Amino acid sequence: MHNSFFQRVLLPGFLFQSVIIGGGYATGRELVEFFLSMGPIAGLLGMVVATAAFSLVMAVAFELARLTMSYTYRHFFQQLLGKGWLLYELGYFVMGLLVLAVIGSAAGEIVAQQFGIPALAGTLGLMLLIGYLVFYPTAMIERVLALWSFVLYATYVLLVVMFLQRFGDAIPRALSAASDGPWLLNGIKYVGYNVSAVPVILFCVMHMQSRRDALLAGALGGPIAMVPALLLLLPMIASYPGILSAPVPADYLMQQLDSGLFQAFFYIVIFGTFVETGAAYIHAVNERIAEAAAERSLVLPRWYRPVLALFALVLSIALAHFVGFVQLISDGYGTLTWFFVLVFIVPLLTRGVWLVAQRPALVTNVTSD
User: Fold this and answer.
1) How far apart are CA 366 and CA 7, in angstroms?
2) What is the sign of the dihedral through the CA atoms of 197, 202, 207 and 209?
3) Residue 365 pLDDT > 70, yes or no?
């Protein structure tokens, strides 16, 4: 089987970026909470830490998944944690609901404030699009997530260019502001809650054909996923410190630009990132259910996939309604951070590294590009 360099090495990073963006930095609020709140310089240092940590985790996880042919999070954690694999699944379900609550709430706010459409309509639209996407098989989801990643990159580059042309002189002044905070700890905390997305994309590991593929895909995965976050952080630094109090910093930036056409396009792209993030989380659950059913020689109808998506979204939107958007990010993500550090990162960088070292660097179906 011939898999291109893009499928083997670059695709995992774009998929990871697609999964984390909705709950990781699309609104900008997460970047304020974990990075910019410490000051611009400390925030940039924290982002470097997060990028390097993502690369390390993905490199080890991809190679362990490739060697054990663990393409779903259930199989992967059975290899890593044994009977303790259920701990990750419990945390994953809670994190999935939290992420869906954040993107569902943000989607409703976007259509209400930017397009004059009732918030409920925006949330329902998000539900329907996610349900439609997860109806399709893995290959289609891979293509959609990768394609939208390129759209996102282009949009963020354009945002930076437009913002720096008008407000670029504010960045040097902002960088001279005092920066003080636990940037190393905050970088690790940011990784802690986002790292739950790595097992979500393990289906792409089946494209990898050697240890080199897995390690290189992991090493590049961190920068690929975090470059858009850096691009968004630059105009946020130019708006520092006023942007710190904005509930949705991305909206704050759009108001400063005051460019109607680009603003509408930007929010359409952001809405699309919510769709891909939600679809990726739910697709992983669907694959886990399908795997368990196959072990019992059961064939599930395809309609269960969108039905599960709609059920999860309704439950998560109810959560957002009762808790609140900003509170979900500041408290919910922070609480789950240390859970995933203990259940995933620590075992992966200890037992996982040992398992990888004990197994030969298996090469399968190697062909040249």
Assistant:
1) 13
2) positive
3) no
